[in-house]
Amino acid sequence: MKRAVTRSKEATHDRIVDAAARAIRRSGYNGTGVADIMKEAGLTHGGFYAHFPSREAMLAEAADRAGSESVAMMERIAAESPSPLTLQAMMQAYLSEAHVAAVETGCATAALGSEMPRQAPEVRRAATRRIKEMIDLVARQSPDWGQPGAHEHALVTVATMVGTLILARAVDDPKLSAALRKATLNHLTPAGD
User: Fold this and answer.
1) 3-class secondary structure for 89-146?
2) Domain ranges of the chain
3) How many CB atoms are closer than 10 A to CB 49?
4) CA distance 13 to 19
5) pTM for this structure?
6) Distance in angstroms (rounded) separating the CA atoms of residues 83 and 67
7) How far is CA 47 from the centre of its chain?
8) Spatial contact of 123 and 32, defined as CB atoms under 8 Å apart
9) Is the Cβ–Cβ distance between 151 and 139 less than 8 Å?
């Protein structure tokens, strides 16, 4: 019986974290209240502290979940793409029109990056861990992996992709959004690919 209660509590906790991960990407950290997240998870506000010691603890788990979903998406694309085209496929998916529209389920760094300096250390730590994972994933797919400068190239690639996604989402001009994404892909894709 105790095991079933534990599994139920874990499932409820997971549901709250899922709701929070979507909510922070949709509304930002400061636009995301505990009551709203609990309601979205189908729970009452009163049950929150049975799962988290603080709002910051929940936000840290939400940031970690949102970041892990972004990395997992890129890992799936890498696994499904032929080796010489893997990085290009990852960049195309990341800068796709569908990803621009998917704020609530898309890249957490692009959705939340400008808010990060004002977050609690545990929230920033979770986000930093996932950003490092994304950089490492891009580095491993790079044609210059293992050579001097490969890590720096991955840093620039990820920073450019995230910046482009932020701008593509920020503008209210679909043609400009598409032009930003296309220019970035043209710039980041090595000649001959």
Assistant:
1) HHHHHHCCHHHHHCCCCCCHHHHHHHHHHHCCHHHHHHHHHHHHHHHHHHHHHCCCCC
2) 54-188
3) 10
4) 10
5) 0.88
6) 24
7) 27
8) no
9) yes
Distances (CA, A) of 183 to 17, 103, 187: 36, 21, 6
Cβ contacts of residue 98 below 8 Å, gap of 6+? none
SS3 at position 15? helix
Q: What is the pLDDT of residues 15-58, one digit of tens each?
A: 999 999 999 999 999 888 899 999 888 888 888 888 999 999 99
pLDDT, tens digit, for every residue of 120-144? 999 999 999 999 999 999 999 988 8
Q: How many residues in the chain?
A: 193
Q: At what angle do helices 55-80 and 2-27 cross, to 10 degrees?
A: 80
Residues contacting 69, CB < 8 A, separation 6+: 21, 105, 108
CATH pick for 54-188 out of 3.40.50.280, 1.10.357.10, 1.20.1530.20, 3.40.109.10: 1.10.357.10
Which helix (H) or strand (E) covers residue 59, if one does?
helix 55-80
Q: ∠ CA 144-140-71 to the nearest 5 degrees?
A: 140
